[in-house]
Amino acid sequence: MHRDGSANAVDTSVVSAAQGAALQVWVENTPYGDAEVMVFNPLLGERPFCYCSFHYRAGYTDADSVHRAAERAAVELGAEVPVRFVARFEC
Predict the structure, then answer these.
(1) How many Å apart are CA 34 and CA 55, to the nearest integer?
(2) Taking the model in full, what pTM does it have?
């Protein structure tokens, strides 16, 4: 228990603000038309990871809807507008 009587020993608002400042978010497009929202926090010393994927499938989705869905997800995670899109040449 924290000395002020609260159950949290860490001020999570400070931790979230510190992590949010370092968080990098972008979208990687694959050769197959998929879009993957990537997240990286250099303060953690880990590699970037794919937070979520949006898949292109002819007859079900189109390139624009995949692009817009990935862009919205990236912005929700803290990406700056305009969102950075990167072409990935390997899957």
Answers:
(1) 4
(2) 0.74
